[in-house]
Design goal:
Layout lengths: L18 H5 L3 H4 L7 E2 L10 H13 L10 H20 L8 E4 L2 H16 L5 E5 L8 H12 L5 E5 L12 H5 L4 E7 L11 H10 L3 E5 L11 H4 L3 E5 L10 E5 L1 H6 L10 E5 L2 E4 L13 H17 L1 H20 L4 E3 L10 E6 L4 H10 L2 E2 L1 E3 L4 H7 L4 E5 L6 H18 L2
Bound molecules: pyridoxal-5'-phosphate (PLP).
The site of pyridoxal-5'-phosphate (PLP) has 13 residues, from α5.
Length: 427
């Protein structure tokens, strides 16, 4: 559990790398502003370094052209830059081949791709899908839609849920029972909770799921940006992540899947680029990965993501994670010491750089509004995890989250702001 209020706060982090030097490479954190910015909402979206902005700008200003089509020089340069980004992303997450990297708009689209292309062609009436109570809506709603669609036509699909413990961890003791009847065809689990920060034991979950004959999808939206990840070591079949949380631009995400699974899957969306041959009577699909990339793709965004993974690689993902951890260790006791603050989530050693909390007697939206007056940016609401909040018995929470550019002063500003919030609301 988090440290009890009043326990001695951890000292300021001994920096694993120089977060101040990192900040100097992020224009939004570097440029002078009327009011200081204490950005504590990296779980919603991360800030972008010069290297990413410059890579996108370079594409638009030197070789803007559509890819895989033109035979002229800048079209070939654009294609090379786009495919090079795919290779960098593949290397970053330890994919077996760049062909296993499918570019999507975001994690949500990556999960929907699995729901439409794989699940709708693979599942049969009576099959079941196991999810957890701590999923983001993007790993719940696509399965609700599938279940509703199938149930409406009389071919029922069952959704089952791994419950959470009061400490905000998955209660894996029930997993064997959930898998026991052999009807589960997919186990789809978030790696790091965007609310609780919990790091789930996905390797063990994948092991049990595979032993029961199920495929495994991991929503790695909050883990790939912060932890060293080798997709093949997770034991998953599908891994979804999103560029804008990992220092890249919005509009680009990734589905990684094992090649033989992708080969066997039908396409998701139809249109240009994903075909090998089209006749009026029908079409043949392109090879991987382009079979799943219909229409003009977000070219500049993929190139920006390539630059983001280079940047993260240069920092070192071990160092990024250690930095997040140190800031979390710094934040937890300081927040816990504020009267009325209730921290959510497990003990430090089982969590990433996300700290959600409530302040007694003050709605999280009001907390965030008062904090904003001091330039402290936190998220407030249900964080796209309504069932999780319902389970925890709170309608909403406030959330602070870190990345490589976060510094102890951000946490100090949050703590000052929370004392001020208590004062404003007389709580
Ligand atoms: C755990 C988790 N899954 C999925 C998503 C969805 O990401 P995107 O909106 O980029 O698709 C988020 C975004 O907050 C998330 O935190």
């Amino acid at each position: 559990m988090v440290p009890a209020p009043g326990s001695a706060p951890a000292p300021a982090p001994a920096r694993t790398f120089d977060a101040r030097a990192v900040r100097a490479q992020f224009p939004i954190l570097r440029e002078p502003r009327e009011q200081p910015l204490f950005y504590l909402d990296s779980a919603a979206t991360s800030q972008k370094p010069d290297a990413v902005l410059q890579a996108m700008d370079r594409y638009y200003s030197t070789c803007n052209a559509n890819i895989h089509r033109g035979v002229y020089a800048i079209a070939e340069q654009a294609t090379a830059a786009y495919e090079d980004a795919r290779r960098r992303v593949a290397a970053f997450v330890g994919a077996g081949s760049p062909r296993e990297i499918i570019f999507t708009r975001n994690s949500t689209e990556a999960i929907n791709l699995v729901a439409y292309a794989w699940a709708r062609s693979t599942l049969r009436a009576g099959d079941a899908i196991v999810l957890t109570e701590m999923e983001h809506h993007s790993n719940l709603v696509p399965w609700h839609m599938l279940a509703e669609e199938w149930n409406a036509r009389g071919t029922a699909i069952e959704l089952r849920f791994i419950p959470i413990t009061p400490q905000g961890e998955l209660d894996l003791s029930v997993l064997p029972a959930l898998l026991a009847d052999g009807r589960v065809k997919l186990v789809s689990v978030v790696h790091v909770s965007n609310v609780l920060g919990t790091i789930n034991p996905v390797v063990e979950i994948a092991r049990q799921a595979h032993a029961a004959g199920a495929r495994v999808l991991i929503d790695a939206s909050q883990s790939v940006p912060h932890l060293p990840i080798e997709v093949r070591e997770l034991g998953a079949d599908f891994v979804a992540f999103t560029g804008h949380k990992m220092l890249g631009p919005t509009g680009i995400g990734v589905l990684w899947a094992r090649r033989e699974i992708l080969e066997a899957m039908p396409p998701f969306m139809g249109g240009g680029e994903m075909i090998r041959e089209v006749k009026l009577s029908g079409s043949k699909w392109n090879e991987l990965p382009w079979k799943f990339e219909a229409g003009t793709m977000p070219i500049a965004e993929a190139i920006g993501l390539g630059a983001a993974v280079d940047y993260l690689t240069a920092l070192g993902m071990d160092a990024v994670f250690a930095h997040d951890r140190e800031l979390t260790a710094y934040a937890l006791p300081r927040l816990a010491a504020i009267p009325g603050v209730r921290l959510m989530g497990p003990a430090l050693e089982r969590r990433a750089g996300v700290v959600a909390f409530t302040l007694e007697g003050v709605h999280p939206h009001d907390v965030a509004t008062v904090l904003d007056r001091d330039g402290v940016a936190v998220r407030a609401g249900h964080h796209c995890a309504m069932p999780l909040h319902e389970k925890l018995g709170v309608p909403a929470s406030a959330r602070a989250s870190f990345h490589c550019y976060s510094v102890p002063e951000d946490v100090d500003a949050l703590v000052r702001g929370l004392h001020r919030t208590r004062h404003v609301f007389g709580s």
